[in-house]
Amino acid sequence: MNKVYVLGIGPGNKDYLLKKTEKIIEKMDVLIGGSRALETFAEQKAKKIKITLPLVKIKNYILTNYEKKKIAVLVSGDPGLYSLLNYLKREINLDILEVIPGISSLQLAASRIQISWNDMRITSLHGKDNKEELFVLLKKEAKVGFFTDSKFPPAKIAEYLIENKIKDKTICVFENLSYVDENITVGSAEEIKKFSFSKLTVIIILDKNQLNSSLRGDIDE
């Protein structure tokens, strides 16, 4: 029985792709993923299917074809962190799936500012309207990491902190992690609200004493 692979392809640059994942992709007949993921493997001869809504189309294709074709679903970062894996587990027999981890952009972000992330509270604002959940986390947690989207970009998040009187926080904005135009901006909410950032962004918000002051000078914009 063929396995359907759910592959974490890391933050973007192939330098962060696991060798095992690379070998699996080379053997696949079909690659399913978002535009950016498929572009990363444009040179592969496999058929490429872009993930679109409704997801039932993807599920039906997999169930109809997995016995005769080798299929991999490509997800950004790690499959265990805000990916299509949860949906696939609900809709497809677990015996069919094989999951290969990848490096999350949040994991890479933590390494860039030299902090541990085992005690980081992680959430996502991608496609959600859960500002209140973020507010609760920031009130009680010293280290919060999350993914953003165009509806709630870093500048708006900074304004939200100011409106809710969340002070003594350092905001670290990571743009285009692993790519040649990667950029890291660190500052207070008052500073961050003045900037515009790219769409491909993750954020870590820390209590002010969490970040090495000498490091901040190296990575501020």
Structural notes for this entry:
The protein has two domains: 4-103, Cobalt-precorrin-4 Transmethylase, domain 1, CATH 3.40.1010.10; 106-219, Tetrapyrrole methylase, C-terminal domain (Methyltransferase, Cobalt-precorrin-4 Transmethylase, Domain 2), CATH 3.30.950. 32% of the residues lie in helices and 23% in strands. It has helices spanning 19-27, 35-40, 56-65, 85-91, 105-112, 131-140, 154-163, 189-192, 213-219; strands at residues 4-8, 30-33, 47-50, 71-75, 97-100, 121-124, 143-147, 169-175, 183-187, 201-207. It has a five-stranded parallel β-sheet, with helices on both faces. The termini are far apart.
CATH superfamily of the largest domain: Tetrapyrrole methylase, C-terminal domain
Reading the helices and strands in chain order gives EHEHEHEHEHEHEHEEHEH
Instruction: Enumerate how many helices there are, as a single number.
Output: 9
Number of strands: 10
Number of domains: 2
Q: What's the Cα radius of gyration?
A: 19 Å
Beta content comes to 15-25%
Oligomer: single chain
Strand order of the largest sheet: 3-2-4-1-5
CATH topology descriptor of the largest domain: Methyltransferase, Cobalt-precorrin-4 Transmethylase, Domain 2
Terminal-residue CA separation: 52 Å
Mean pLDDT: 91
Give the % helix: 25-40%
Major sheet details:
5 strands, parallel
What's the level 1 CATH class of the largest domain? Alpha Beta
Structural class computed from helices and strand pairing: alpha/beta
Low-confidence stretches: none
Overall CATH architecture of the largest domain: 2-Layer Sandwich
User: Rough shape?
Assistant: elongated
